[in-house]
Amino acid sequence: MINKVSLNNNYNPNFGHEKRTNMTPKQKAVVLMSSAAGMTPVLAVLAKRKGFSLNPKNIINTPIKDWAIFKYAPKGKAIKYDAIPIVAVATGSVLGGYAGGVLVDDKSQRRAKKREILNQILGNVIVPVSCVWTGSELYGKFENRLKAAMPQFKKSGKYTRIANKCLRNLPQAVATIASLCVGIFCGNKVSNYINEQVYKRKVDRNIRATDFAPHVDDLCMATSMMNKGSNFGDKIGRVIPLALIVPGYQTGIAQESRTELL
What radius of gyration do the chain's Cα atoms show? Predict the structure, then answer.
């Protein structure tokens, strides 16, 4: 008798970060590379618009730190990762990850990967980016007043200066964390809604503390957007292309939840 696989109709997207262990390391490596490849055309367009050469010979002869995606130049030629470029790069990553996953994984897993495209692009990219962008714009209007309202130590000294600087930057840190948390929470709700309304799969899942750990891509994005124009924000922005491989990778490795083989 041929064994059949029973699929769990209560598939839980786990907000794009469910642990999946059925793919081999080689398959996952292909998905990782395809996610990076999917981002390449978008990054190439962004680089070209900033005046970077796309000639392979020139790129090879350029130090890695001066490549378009990594170059740190706050007042010079450098790619700025604000809302629209982030969404565009992440979308390229997701489509690339999907292509890689379809290439190396079983055909029966394609539906799961298609579902994950929407979960990642909407729940893990567009919704968090929108929330952080909104928070950044609101914070910018009140930044000076918020910083001026923070108490300062009057004593002089190295540690006092550090403490005062931390206090002045506290409102910005709180705004960054708050907007990111709201984005993750709303993104989770969007993912659940997609599964319930579009795919007719009931999902009843609350946010857990562990859900925040995998969102390094969102954290880098939030920190960069909330620190626009600052050296710190520009430095963090250099990490965003690498962090945005995550949504594509999660899409490519997405699989149906399985019960035991019958």
Answer: 21
SS3 258: strand
* 189-211 tens-digit pLDDT: 888 887 787 777 665 555 555 45
Whole-structure pTM value: 0.79
Q: Residues of 212-240 as b/e, b for ≥16 C-beta within 10 angstroms?
A: eebbebbbbbbbbbbbeeeeebbebbbbb
What's the CA gap between 27 and 100, in Å, rounded?
Answer: 8
| Separation between Cα atoms, residue 137 and residue 131, nearest integer Å | 10
CA distances from 147 to 131, 168, 174 (A): 22, 5, 12
| Residues in the chain, overall count | 262
The most distant pair of C-alpha atoms in the chain lies apart, rounded to whole Å, by 82
Q: Are 150 and 167 in contact (CB under 8 A)?
A: yes
Contact 77, 52 (CB under 8 A): yes
Cα 167 versus chain centre, distance: 28
What is the C-alpha separation between 195 and 211, in angstroms, rounded? 18
